Amino acid sequence: MSRPRAAILVGCVLVLGAGAARADLPPGACPGPIEAAAGPLAGGTETYQPADFGAVPEACPGTDLLLRLRGELLDASGAPEFRGQVTATGTARGRRRINARSWISVALELVTYRYVNDAGVASNTFSFGPATLGYHLVLAARSSGALAIYARALLPIDTARQPGSYATGGELGAAGRARVGRRWLVDGGLSLAAPLDVTGGQAHGQLQPAALAEAWFAPRETFAVFAGASVRFEAAPDASLVMLSPRIGLRAALRHGLSLAFLAEAPLAGSDGTNVSAGLFVGWAPAP
Question: How far apart are CA 110 and CA 93, in angstroms?
């Protein structure tokens, strides 16, 4: 695409986005403060989704704080790998509403613990970072749902890496939600993440498209359960399936803006290798 055409396209997107941001959301398009079926829980594995990089976010704006404790198990103790790994992470994420249709997000890996047993040689490490910064915008909204786009950057703050080595990258994606009945909702989206590893002055990039789909059932407004699946590919430099993972979970809205949630995933296929991962979420949102 030529530079003039690219500039025109970017200008049109900015104009449309600015117009959308000035418009209020129609009633019912997004969840209320105590609605438990409020959007995806960030999952996946820490290896491919540090600080939620590559994880499809909510489709609706909000101001909140979230703490996630997540554990992962990789058991490849049989031949030919003779390897096992346990990973535990503590992640903090905050969102800040800018206006009726846009918001920013910041996520940070507060601590990551890894225990690796490679053919009988064991090691364990603690690390801090990385972080992500994102901008989100609702493009379309009706009383039955909303559609948003987002851009996110992976910030090279990671103590697990050696001096002169760091990871960064960018991500573009879209997220949506729709109410399909009085007690049923569906959500999900698409992500296109491009992580970049730099070691000793050598840069190695990847292109990782991903998709997520979930169905939520809310027997009451303050409690909901869901089931779904996520899939992630590596499109470049080599084409391969990274992870195909079913997921189940629940969320409950409590008093004083607090919420609790649980997510479990068990990848069925792909090069990721993780056998199971689970996360416990504690959230807080200020009163509207």
Answer: 10
Give the start-end residues of each E strand in the chain: 64-76, 83-97, 102-118, 121-127, 131-142, 145-155, 165-179, 184-199, 202-205, 208-220, 223-234, 240-253, 258-265, 276-284
Per residue in 37-90, pLDDT tens? 999 999 888 778 899 999 999 999 999 999 999 999 999 888 677 889 999 999
Question: What's the rounded Cα separation, in Å, for the pair 172 and 150?
Answer: 6
Helix (H, G, I), strand (E, B) or coil at 59: coil
State both tokens at 66.
Answer: 């979230």
Between the alpha carbon of residue 106 and those of residues 7, 17, 63, 92, 100, the distances in Å are 28, 21, 11, 8, 19
Q: Which residues contact 222 (CB under 8 A, 6 or more apart)?
A: 34, 35, 36, 252, 253, 254
Q: What is the mean pLDDT of residues 110-133?
A: 92
Could you write out the DSSP letters of every residue in 204-255?
Answer: EE-BEEEEEEEEEEEEETTEEEEEEEEEEEE-BSS-EEEEEEEEEEEEEE-G
Residue 13 DSSP symbol: H
Question: For 124-170, what is each residue's pLDDT tens digit?
Answer: 999 999 999 999 999 999 999 999 999 999 999 989 888 888 899 99
DSSP state of 78: S
Amino acid at 168: T
C-alpha closest to that of 234 among 243, 222, 226, 247: 243
Give the per-residue pLDDT at 44. Answer: 80
Task: Please tell me the pTM assigned to this model.
Answer: 0.89
Beta-carbon count within 10 A of 103 CB: 24
Beta pairing, strands 64-76 & 83-97: antiparallel
Q: Are 110 and 128 in contact (CB under 8 A)?
A: yes
- 152: which strand partners? 134, 171
